[in-house]
Every structure is written in structure tokens, then in C-alpha cells.
Specification:
- InterPro entries: Extradiol_RC_dioxygenase, Glyas_Bleomycin-R_OHBP_Dase, Glyas_Fos-R_dOase_dom, VOC_core.
- Pfam families: Glyoxalase.
- Keywords: Plasmid.
- Helix content is 16%, strand content 35%.
- It is α+β, with helices and mostly antiparallel strands and 309 residues long.
- The strands form 2 sheets. An 8-stranded mixed beta sheet has the order 2-3-4-1-13-16-15-14. An 8-stranded mixed beta sheet has the order 6-7-8-5-9-12-11-10, with helices on one face.
- The longest helix is centred in the C-terminal third of the chain and has 13 residues, at 227-239.
- The radius of gyration is 18 Å and the shape is globular.
- The termini are far apart.
- 43% of the residues are buried.
């Protein structure tokens, strides 16, 4: 069993409108845009990152906004719900705020003893807020939401699967342990991990496969401290039979990817070097930053990419 993985690093999804996406995360949810860059493989598309002040691993939601992308179809083989942590007693504030802003899918529930508010993003994305008593992470409050209510970062993510068996086995190999089971959901946790260390497995044998599009999660990333730990994880996964990509430099972290038995794309990402490697902390996410291989395209991209500020 591995011990290098600390919990979630980031979650990357897709959208169809960059400006709407930016407004939702920075204004409605009050997160900080910590990086404005482009998709490495499709530089005519933004890659937008939202999180806490520094973009701390375990707080960062990222998006590829493909203009006029059709909506995805929910199903198995995907991350169904991305869940954020908020302070105890704040769900009433959030329910009123999101309703006023026109959010859909608002639903209160309690699961695993936690109060929760489900809601949908602009593209039908599956989100939830969960009240957490002792989340000591410092929230970003310059988005207009006070510290008494502001999002701390991720709480968990839920994977929708036709059969949880092989994926549960994989996650246990990655260092997760089963914490509880309830109503067809298995909850796993990384002991001693970061504050985003929970994964829920939702078994849905009668649901069809998901079809990706706007509102779908593209991949989910797990955090390791550094490249040395990442290489240890890569070797262990390959020795177990997984097809894992070479290490890829993503400017703000190094990444490896592999497809899980349940169909979800997993990434293992390093906590280094961080989002302040090319911008001062005070100005994260303000300027368009381009990967080295795309810097020659700046004039074209600046005229082509949708204005979001």
C-alpha cells in the first residue's frame, strides 16, 4: 500500500463559456482565480484555476472552457459531485445566496452525519457544500464572502461507478481506507492526509455510461509532496499493471495520468512548484500566462480568447 498520496490536489472540469465560468467561481462562490493560462494541448482554449489565496493543493477547481461545447450526459465512469468544505452553520447563508443568484438543483440533505447542500453549476456541474467543524484552512475573503461563510477548499469528491470493486481496491492501494458505508455509498479516507482526503464511491449498476461535455469532470488529481514521491507512485502503479503516462511538466506542478477500472481519469500531481512561480502572490491570476511552447502565439491568443475581466 502506498503512503505518498495526501488527498485531493485539484479537480478539472469543462465548460462552454469562459466568462460565465469565471463569474460563477469568483463572484458566486467567492474563490480566487489563481491562474489564467491555456490548455497545453489546445492553446486556443483557456485553462482557468480557482482556489484559496495561493492555490493550495486541495482547494483548486480548474476548467477548460470550450466555446459552445455541448452539455455532458451524467452517468457512471465519472466524478459525479465535487464537494467543498464550509464552516458549521453557514449552509443557510449559502442556500439563500445561491437561490438569489439563480442556481439550480438546490437540495438540503444529511449524509454520513454531515449537513450538506447540493447545487448545480452553470453547465449542470454537480456540486455540494458540506459543513465542517474543524477545517482550519484560511479562506479567500476578497471575493466578497466573509470568513464565517467562505469556502475552505475541497471536502471530497464522489465517483459514480457501475461496480465499485476494482476502483475501491485501487484507492486502497493508493493509501485510502474504508471509513463507512451507507445507502450504496462507500466512504474512503486517507489517514493523516490533507483537508481534502475523502472519496465517496457511489455504486449505480443500472445507470448508463457518462458522456463528457460541458459540466463534466475531465479528471481528478491526487496530491503528492514532490517529484520523488510521484515517481515512487508511478513505479508502484506500473508494477501493478496500470498504464501510466510519463511525467508531464504542467508549469505549476508535475503530473502523471492513468485510467481507472471504473473509467475515471486519475492524475497524480506534485505540490511543487506552485502558482506563484511566475506571478507574485498578490497578483495571481491577473495576467495571461502561456506555457513556453505557446509563448509565440501570444498576439493571436490575446485577440482570440474571450475577454473574462
Amino acid at each position: 500500500m502506498l503512503n505518498q498520496i495526501k488527498g485531493l490536489h485539484h479537480v478539472t472540469s469543462m465548460a462552454d463559456d469562459a466568462r460565465e465560468n469565471n463569474l460563477f467561481f469568483t463572484k458566486s462562490l467567492g474563490l480566487r482565480r489563481v491562474k489564467k493560462t491555456v490548455n497545453f494541448d489546445s492553446p486556443d482554449v483557456y485553462h482557468l484555476y480557482y482556489g484559496d489565496e495561493a492555490g493550495t493543493p486541495g482547494t483548486v477547481m480548474t476548467y477548460f472552457p470550450f466555446p459552445q461545447m455541448p452539455r455532458g450526459r451524467a452517468g457512471t465512469g465519472e466524478v459525479g459531485t465535487t464537494v467543498f468544505s464550509v464552516p458549521e452553520g453557514s449552509l443557510g447563508f449559502w442556500k439563500e445566496r445561491l437561490a438569489t443568484l439563480g442556481a439550480t438543483g438546490l437540495k438540503d440533505e444529511e449524509t454520513f452525519g454531515e449537513k450538506r447542500l447540493n447545487f448545480a453549476g452553470p453547465d449542470g456541474d454537480g456540486f455540494a457544500l458540506v459543513e465542517v467543524r474543524d477545517d482550519g484552512r484560511t479562506p479567500w475573503t476578497e471575493g466578497g464572502i466573509s470568513a464565517d461563510h467562505a469556502i475552505r477548499g475541497f471536502h471530497s469528491a464522489a465517483l459514480r461507478l457501475r461496480d465499485e470493486g476494482a476502483t475501491a481496491e485501487l484507492l486502497k492501494f493508493m493509501g485510502y481506507e474504508e471509513l463507512d458505508r451507507k445507502d450504496g455509498v462507500t466512504r474512503l479516507i486517507v489517514p493523516g492526509g490533507n483537508d481534502a482526503r475523502v472519496i465517496d464511491l457511489e455504486t449505480m449498476p443500472n445507470i448508463g455510461r457518462a458522456s463528457q461535455g460541458a459540466g463534466s469532470v475531465h479528471h481528478i488529481a491526487f496530491a503528492v509532496d514532490n517529484r520523488e514521491k510521484q515517481l515512487e507512485v508511478r513505479k508502484a502503479l506500473m508494477d501493478t499493471g496500470y498504464q501510466v503516462t510519463p511525467v508531464i511538466d504542467r508549469d505549476y506542478f508535475w503530473a502523471i495520468y492513468f485510467r481507472t477500472p471504473g473509467g475515471v481519469l486519475f492524475e497524480i500531481a506534485t505540490n511543487e512548484p506552485g502558482f506563484d512561480r511566475d506571478e507574485d502572490l498578490a497578483h495571481l491570476g491577473e495576467a495571461l500566462k502561456l506555457p513556453q511552447q505557446h509563448k509565440h502565439l501570444r498576439p493571436i491568443l490575446e485577440s482570440h480568447l474571450q475577454k473574462i475581466d
